[in-house]
Amino acid sequence: MLPTTNHGSRSSNPQRRLSVLSTYLRRIIKPKQMDFEYTFWLMLQLCISPKTAYRHTSYHKQTKNHWARDDPAYVVICCLLVGAAACAYCVAFSSSVWHSLFTVMSAVFVDFLAIGVAIATVGWFLANKCLRKKTLHSHAIEQHVEWMYAFDVHCNSYFPLFLLLYVLQYLLCPLLLWHSFFSAVLSNLLYMAALSYYHYLSFLGYSALPFLEHTEVFLWPVAAIILIVPFTILSGFNPTRFTLNIYFG
């Protein structure tokens, strides 16, 4: 049985985290050390069988003794996909090379990475401060959510959202951009599905950790989305038009 953590090993945790982080960053510039085959398999499972994808999280804990991935392949692939999709939008809607470059950089480094870091930090803080199970005796082992695992959860949740709000939305743009009630309904339903599935995958990610409880709090945004969407539809609000206006005016 693999140990998790104990009182004597707490002082070594920062060193272990730095070691994992240095390995992670070092692999970014060494593509041969990245497991792209597993990454594409994981992306597929997150779309068709997300519970299977997170079942492998426990296998990773058993073999590496930490929950977070030490392979940056998933993040690299997501950045490339987001950048490519942003380029497609720029070809269709942008009128300037510099504006296109700015849009692509914003999509990758702000929409995916920076906002992802913020969301991961909130989830990491909430899980560690409010959701960890109380120890029943003095010899119980304390476990904590790793920040890099929280970022993994965001990245995992982002890929299906990317397929819906970058790829599918792009293909449906001629329909979604019409000034009609049907276009507003379709756009709202698309965003509702994408954002709800994002939060559902986040819930699965945190519920996969056996030392957390009440992880259903990560599903609360889904209820809020379902309650808000009827009002946005009745008001004629079109999320697709709103989003593209932000980027392209």
From TrEMBL:
It is found in: Membrane. InterPro entries: UNC-50. The keyword Membrane applies. One of its GO terms (cellular component) is Golgi membrane. It holds the Pfam family UNC-50. The chain crosses the membrane at residues 74-94, 101-127, 218-237. Keywords: Membrane, Transmembrane, Transmembrane helix. The keyword Transmembrane helix applies. It comes from the Eukaryota. It is a multi-pass membrane protein. Belongs to the unc-50 family. This is UNC-50. It comes from Coccomyxa subellipsoidea (strain C-169).
